């Protein structure tokens, strides 16, 4: 009987300690971290051609996001075909898009139709690059004129773009299963991974062009001022291409230190 009573008391003490510790850690977490929603409230949708608070933005399917050169943030909505611009004070405008579709180049960005603008990246001169996925286009919004143009190359459902500090545009051309490199200065496009590959993705430290890719998507580039290392997602893995064109798979622990 005494043993049972002792066990009950120990259990009660454990539960009391657990409850107190949970509250303690929850309190500390609340003191340390704050979660803030910038966008996503479903308003009345009347957000074109006006400035509004970012919290009141109607984002139906946010997909692309990148930072600008003046602490602003660009966010795209793939379903509505719109691109939003969020300022440091959290005010927001519709930067571009007139709905889903394609109406050729040469229009102001606000008069341009996009069809799933799934990835965004801002170059060092302020130009905005867009993977216009369902139009099979890589679009450019000029920082000087706000006019839209497209690269004169064939793409197939591109899902990722990233401009490095070395003014090189990298493209995840998902439908063609390749990673491409576009030198903005010389206007030369080359394939740096995938394409006519013959090795599956389990090989490391081999030429990236020899690897078979399976719908590469997200892309990120780390520059050291001279060379670029390209990171991308493909076939449920994170992979990389180094400055020498060598391919390898990346461990999560390595990503934590490099990205």
Task: Give me the secondary-structure topology.
Layout: H1 2-32, E1 52-53, E2 62-67, E3 73-77, E4 82-86, E5 91-96, E6 117-122, E7 128-132, E8 137-141, E9 148-150, E10 160-163, E11 168-173, E12 178-183, E13 188-194, E14 206-207, E15 219-223, E16 228-234, E17 237-241, E18 246-249, H2 252-258
Antiparallel strand pairs: 1-5, 2-3, 3-4, 4-5, 6-7, 7-8, 8-9, 10-11, 11-12, 12-13, 14-18, 15-16, 16-17, 17-18
Structure description:
It holds the Pfam family NHL. Keywords: Repeat, Signal. Residues 1-21 form the signal peptide. NHL repeats lie at residues 155-185. This protein has 259 residues and is α+β, with helices and mostly antiparallel strands. It folds into two domains: 50-150, Thrombin, subunit H (Beta Barrel), CATH 2.40.10.500; 158-258, TolB, C-terminal domain (Neuraminidase). 15% of the residues lie in helices and 34% in strands. Strands 1-5-4-3-2 form a five-stranded antiparallel sheet, with no helix packed on it. β10 (160-163) and β11 form a beta hairpin. The protein is globular and about 50 Å long. It starts with a helix and ends with a helix.
State the main characteristics.
Thrombin, subunit H, 2 helices, 5-stranded antiparallel beta sheet, Neuraminidase, single chain, alpha+beta, 259 residues, 15% helix, 2 domains
In brief, what are we looking at here?
With about 260 residues, the chain is of the alpha+beta class.
**H/E element sequence:** HEEEEEEEEEEEEEEEEEEH
Class computed from helices, strands and strand pairing:
alpha+beta
CATH class of the largest domain: Mainly Beta
Q: In terms of per-residue confidence, which ranges show pLDDT below 50 for 5 or more consecutive residues?
A: 1-35, 41-47
């Amino acid at each position: 009987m005494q043993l049972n009573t002792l066990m009950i008391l120990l259990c009660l003490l454990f539960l009391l300690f657990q409850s107190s510790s949970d509250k303690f850690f929850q309190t500390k977490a609340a003191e340390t971290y704050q979660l803030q929603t910038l966008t996503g409230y479903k308003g009345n949708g009347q957000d074109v051609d006006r400035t509004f608070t970012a919290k009141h933005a109607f984002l139906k399917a946010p997909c692309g996001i990148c930072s600008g050169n003046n602490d602003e943030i660009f966010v795209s909505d793939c379903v509505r075909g719109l691109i939003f611009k969020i300022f440091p004070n959290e005010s927001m405008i519709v930067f571009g898009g007139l709905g889903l579709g394609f109406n050729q180049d040469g229009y102001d960005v606000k008069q341009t139709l996009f069809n799933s603008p799934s990835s965004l990246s801002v170059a060092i001169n302020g130009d905005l690059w867009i993977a216009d996925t369902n139009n099979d286009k890589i679009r450019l919004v000029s920082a000087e004129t706000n006019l839209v143009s497209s690269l004169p190359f064939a793409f197939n459902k591109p899902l990722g773009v990233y401009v490095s500090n070395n003014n090189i545009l990298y493209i995840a051309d998902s439908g063609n299963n390749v990673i491409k490199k576009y030198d903005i200065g010389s206007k030369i496009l080359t394939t740096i991974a995938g394409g006519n590959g013959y090795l599956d993705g389990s090989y490391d430290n081999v030429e990236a062009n020899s690897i078979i890719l399976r719908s590469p998507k997200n892309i990120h580039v780390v520059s050291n001022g001279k060379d670029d290392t390209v990171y991308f997602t493909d076939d449920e893995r994170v992979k990389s291409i180094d400055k020498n064109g060598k391919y390898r798979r990346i461990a999560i622990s390595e990503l934590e230190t490099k990205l």
